[in-house]
Amino acid sequence: MLHRRAVFGALSTLYVVFIGAVTLTPDPFSDGVDGTIDQLIEALSQHPLTAWLTYEVVEFTANIGMFVPLGLFVALWAGRRRWWMGIIAGVIYTVVIESLQGLVLAATRYATFSDIIANTLGAIVGAIVARIVHGYVLERAARPRGAQRVR
Q1: What pTM was estimated for this model as a whole?
Q2: What per-residue confidence (pLDDT) applies to 118?
Q3: With 0-12 CB in 10 A as exposed, 13-18 as middle and 19+ as buried, what is 118?
Q4: Which of 82, 90, 120, 122 might form a disulfide with 78, Cβ 3.0–4.6 angstroms?
Q5: Could you tell me which of 134, 66, 67 has the C-alpha nearest to residue 142?
């Protein structure tokens, strides 16, 4: 139990640092990355099947994806009964990030409510995945060795 908490506590901490490095630097992208993303979105917008894939959709989806691991790691660290802490951590961290972007980094960053929504959704998904994993692990641990799962 202590080993699991140490591992997921360390992963949570490292991932918080990673998110901070991505979201709290004054320059959001180097010119090469931003240009490549814009070119890809422009190319996709030319096809009728992918015309819906705008920069806003890509950014919203990326924000969800960025916070899934945070919700997952914190929920796995917190344990089966407190899995919801992954959601709380995601909400608190995204509000801190957006506040800093709006107050301190306003010259180069934009604080948006849609980022808070997307980041929170990501933390929710991660925490729910952790809850499912906890349930599966507990179910397997409760089964006698060699017993088959009843379907």
Answers
A1: 0.81
A2: 98
A3: buried
A4: 82
A5: 134
